[in-house]
Amino acid sequence: MEAVADGGGLPPSSFERTGWVDVSHLIEAACADLQEGELIHGENFSLFAAMSALEIMDPKMDSGMESVGYRSVEEAIGDGAAPVNLDVQSTIDVMDHLLACEATWHKGHSLAQTVYSCIYLLQIERTSSHALLHSYCRIIHATCNALISAVSDARTHEEEDLFVMAYGLPMKREGDEKCLSILNSVEETINRQLRASKAPSSKKKILEGEESLQTNPDLEEGYCKAILSRLRFRKHFFHVLGCMRKPRGTGLELARKHIVSCLAELARVRKSSEFLTSTSYLPHGDDLEEKTTASGCNAVGFDVNINCRMLAPTPPRAIKILSWKKAIEYFEKLLHSLDVICSLHLDQMLEGVLHFVVQFQLSQPDLVARSYMQLLLVQDGKLFGRDPIIDVISRAAALPELSKNQEFQKTEFVVQLGKLVVNLLKVLCTNAAWQRRKLGKILQDWSVTSVQLELALEKEYKEVSNVSFDESSFIDLSKRLLAWAEEQTYWIASRFLVLGFELELYSSSEYCMVYWYMYIIYIRQLEIAQLKIVYNSDNSKRKGKKKRDCSKEAARDAQISSSILLLQCYICLSEGLAMMLAALSNEHKAFQPPNAFNTEEERFIQHFELLQRAHVPSHISYYLFKEWIAPARNAGVMKDNYFRDVQRISTLLRSRIPEDSEKLTEIRQIEQVAEHNRIAVNVINQARSYGSSLRVSFEFSQHPFFAVAVVKRS
Amino acid sequence: MGDPLQDAISTVQDVDWTPETNASPNVCQLQKLLYRRMMVGVNDGRFFAGSFNCIDKQGNIILQDALEYRPIRRSSPSPYEQRCLGLILIPASCRTSCHVEASLEEQLSGLSIAPQESTQFQEDGNNI
Known about the structure:
The complex is a heterodimer of chains A (about 725) and B (about 130). Chain A has 26 helices and nine strands. In chain A, about 60% of the residues lie in helices and about 5% in strands. Residues about 1-10 of chain A have low confidence and may be disordered. In chain A, a hairpin with a 2-residue loop joins strand 5 and strand 6 (about 380-385). In chain A, the strands form three sheets. Chain A has a three-stranded antiparallel β-sheet with strand order 5-6-7. Chain A has a two-stranded antiparallel sheet with strand order 1-2. In chain A, strands 8-9 form a two-stranded antiparallel ribbon. In chain A, helix 6 crosses helix 13. Chain B has helices spanning about 5-15, 25-30, 105-110, 120-125; strands spanning about 35-40, 45-55, 60-70, 80-90, 95-105. Chain B has a five-stranded antiparallel β-sheet with strand order 4-3-2-1-5. The model of chain B is unreliable at about 10-20 and about 115-128 (pLDDT under 50). The chains are: A mainly alpha (about 725), B alpha+beta (about 130). Chains A and B meet through strand 1, strand 2, helix 1, strand 3 and helix 2 of A and helix 1, helix 2, strand 1, strand 2 and strand 3 of B. Chain B: It holds the Pfam family LSM. Chain B: This is Sm domain-containing protein. Chain A: It is found in: Cytoplasm.
């Protein structure tokens, strides 16, 4: 035997009385004897599973590959990579680089590769002699903890799950609650130093007891200001996060004040870059835009690979830390998004809340903001942590009886509806792609609940006579609840289709079928809305409302009529666009789908399968669509004048709505789309009669999901 | 049927990969070492220990439930840092050493491990 090793430089073997035996020669000999393509393997071997094996020394898979960096934190510190006696300029660089790291983390990289590439953070205790650095590290640490807990509580991070992974990092640490007091005392000290630096020289003697940040008195003020703005930003940001998590939205007002201060400090931080670049000795030709610090110098105390051995769940790829300027922009956007969340009016109807969330999502807020949105919406299974969902539904469906009727509340479908509403609110806070997938799935739950409700209506009608409340009210309640549930189902369906535009899932050859489907959905929504009005008028007639209630009702009616008018606009627009596209395809052979990979019918199924499975609406098929578009001709589109109708209705709509800027923008956009398309239809028609050929394309320049035709001579 | 992924898996599994019956003694011997704990060293100084799962003609080895041992320069109590990796493939090109775990009895007999042709020579070497 060549080597019978029991240790000898190798890691220990697992049992006593065993050792390692060298088999390299045996392997060499056996491999030589093997046939090409032959394997030695056991019974449980599967080639398919073997394909997912981690390949050692593959730079894309093997995170443990020997890299140039340090192998452990101790080694890095021992090598002097993170000196604690930093001067003020270097301390500011560390702060700035940490900010850039934090933004990079929020944008979807792992904590270990970003914020915790900071060696000071990995061993905070080491920094305690440097009060400024220590306080900053502490608050960063506390902020990271607060964010991780918020995001993991909200669970809006399904596809961004790197955010909450903190394996192996020193996240649990005593004394997080003290971080603010430490920060405050440091801030106080710096503030005194700032005052001292401003004081005329005669007074300086009095203040001589104070230490200064550095030796050059001319620079003292600038450094003090740069540091103060950074510390204060951290303080206010930490307060914002704390206030926003107060139960029942009670901290929102205070949070807004902190957001204002936060943004002001951020502006000062940005401005401090002028001073900091002037004092640093930057090598010429370096691009300041790409730097991760305000001064442009590289920060000390960071090692990107320091945690690479903890990164089992992340691929060992190199990441690019955002530049300092980008990081500041990110935080500004985040704060604006948080401000939008804080501005949410907590006393509105569910419809308003849903609309608010949809509007909020238009600005494409990042993960952190979306998590806080969701945490505000749903707390302890209640809306804003204070309104039981059943009350929310009863208000939304205009069924005051529902919240009083305990017995009815306990019925299975009402409980189910409550769960669905909570789920819907949560789904609306996720990112667009995930949201669309989830919406498609929950559609089925909604439609199943509606069917259950319908069945229960029939069944319990018979049993209801021996129940304590009168049957006509039960039937009435169920009917109206059903109408409300359907209304929500169609709202979800339209959101599902619209998100497809946002995510650019449709090709221009498919616009026709998408608009056609949207048209069908809007028509159903209109029918339900009209049904609701009938119910409401029945109800008020029967009850003989008091005067005060009547005025409330009138306001409600006005709102309903404006939403009906808006729906009518949507109907005309989507019908017009579908017809226009169909006519172009029928007459000009434009927007014909390429047949190479799949047929039009297959694509129809791909896009609308989830809707059809949920019977939203039932009896819709590809053949119905084909039948519908077959006769479409441009002349017909001209004659039917869908876009003119839109303009007519929108004028009416304008007169109905109050000075609500948000709705007005929507109306203006719709009018623009209608106007552009009306002209386009005319042009196409004229060109046809003159026999000249045109090229038509569609773009979303006026409205997020209603396209505008662009006609060019070809 | 119809799911292409499922089809692909079943095709892969249908293929008969068992070595031919007239395999060489070396191959038979290596086959006996399957499922044993194997320790493979690679050229950057790390070791991987796991259950021996598969080897091909080129000498690429697959280990199951593998642990990675990484030497630390400034040593703490243990000179190695370890972490769990699961199923890994070690290409022959980076392999520098290969050991299997054996009981003392097996080590003493020495027979079952060494390649056949050289057994005699190896034992002689040991005696000296």
